[in-house]
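Worked Example 4.2. Consider the chain below.
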Amino acid sequence: MPSLRELLGFGKSEGANNLVILNGYPLAVVVAISLHILLLGGLVYLQSSSQSQALELIQPTVIKALLIEENPQITNQRNQDNRRLEAKRKETERANAAAQKKREEQAAERKRQEEAAQKREQQQVAKQRADAKAKAEREKTLAEEERKKREAESQREAEKRREEQAQRERESRQQREREDAQDAAATEAASSEFDLIQSATGLIQQLVTENWSRPPSARNGMRAIIQIKMLPTGELVDVIITQSSGDPAFDRSAENAVYRAAPFAELTALPIRVFNQNFRTLSLIFQPEDLLN
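Applying the procedure from the previous section yields the following structure tokens:
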């Protein structure tokens, strides 16, 4: 039957203080395995004793644990390996932590950049909206000012047209008033002028008639026309018989009547225009109608 050393993988000892470890396991591992085997054996024994006597009592195998000293060189080598592994593990952890931190920082930076880009986009959209609103307000203000300007211009044009119409009406009214006044003045002047002419003509006829002595040869139906020329002072310039009565005595009596009646001083009161148009040359008709024969 193999011994415990053979079960645990130990070979023959080459010296009293030398220790050969199976597959490189340390002494603590061997001791732990031994203790587990003893514990397992104890549990099996307790279970067997509690069962009926029909069960066969199994005697546990006695395992002897030996304390074997480990080679210091192997221990140092293992410790160095462990330290290297621990340093490598820590280095890996540090590298992983740095990489994780870098990834977190990059993620945070991307998030910050995304948030900044989103904020810039929001600000740009807000600015565009504000600009569009401001532009709409400016256009609305300009349109309102333009509308008010057009209304003011229309009002000024309408006021100007009203003033021009009122001016034309005033001028037309004033023109009518002037024309009416001129017509009235002309009518009055014409009436006054006609009265003057009639008055002066009647006065001349009266004076000539008062100074006419009809000859005995005068008969009803005789007619002589005498043309006289005068100055504005009423003095005679010339007396001409433009139509004879056929009776020399009748014609001479008519001439003598004109000479005796002159000068006609009343003509000096006439306006020169009225005198020139009506009395510078005047024709008098001598025609008796009241004779008995």
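Residues 72-210 form the longest helix (139 residues). The radius of gyration is 83 Å. Compare this with Example 4.1 before moving on.
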